[in-house]
Amino acid sequence: MAGERLGAPPPRPRARALGVELGVEQPGPRNAITDVAGVRVGHATLWTGSEEEGGPVVRTGVTAVLPHGGNLFRDKVPAAVHVINGFGKAIGVTQVAELGVLETPIVLTNTLSVGAAFDGVVTHALGQNPEIGRTTGTVNPFVAECNDWRLNDIRGRHVRAKDVTEAIETATGGDVPEGTVGAGTGMVCYGWKGGIGSASRVLSAGFGGSTVGALVLANFGRSADLRIGALHVGRLLEPSHPPGFPATGGAQGSCIVVLATDAPANARQLARLARRAQSGLARTGTSSEHGSGEYAVAFSTAATIPHWREGPFATSVELSEGGPYMDAFFQAAVEAVEEAVVNALFAAQTVVGLDGVTAYALPVEAVVEHGCGEGRPHP
Q: Is 254 part of the annotated catalytic residue set?
């Protein structure tokens, strides 16, 4: 499977596979962002070294999200960004906010590899588009990050441009690998091993039958605050950590949320959708702390926007602004983000990283044991 490297642990079952159901809306067939037709996800996982073997201990990687399989620079998609808490090093945010379009894959990685990720996205775009920097303008790479320094030799900056192009070029529209993979390899969430998670919701026919999908890079939260459904997990379970391990959120936390929909939403409507990511994260217990870099980017695949336009005017079909319709999309986004975070926790395996520091997998059996008859957690 693309994105795996020797030594990286396999994922565990997701929340619904163990009977933990969140929200009221129905997920898509994969319960992933790839339920939005055309969306692709790719990973490059970097996993080398250990304390016993010596050498750099690398627990990091790259995750790429592509709105479609074509040339994004020439056929852009409507998009918007919401900054929940700006303690981050994202690239490309201001141009998306200004123009309302996305023209490259969304690439996620660790904090000190943003430069390499930028280089990789540019390399990919230049390879597809010889006109960039010649007969047209430049390109706006979209890169976002979380800090994996607790488990990864982040100072070594082991991510290279080739890892970014690998993640982009191997992206597929199938099931999304989750947990300890790609950019999520070295991430910690609520004091437990975190990483990549995904989920989706399909609206009823009365609301157009549209799909909203979410992918998260989960690296945030205080262990005492974790909630899964109505179960206050943080009051029941406390992860073990060596002295000095910063298990809380604060300056060590971050989360990147990617939202996709096949509904014909314009950039302003997508900005409203992106803002609801904050509610989905809050359902899991976070208050978005001072030092947590949290960003949400949302895009629509319903139509593309050509790089070269003809004529002074453009027409488009847009979502109805009627309250019930927008409310349905908001709820779908909130539920998908919430479940994506939980899937990241459920799928991630225990990881031993830099200096022997261990991030333990959430003991999902203990979480499930506190559930009630229909598989939904209870206090």
A: yes
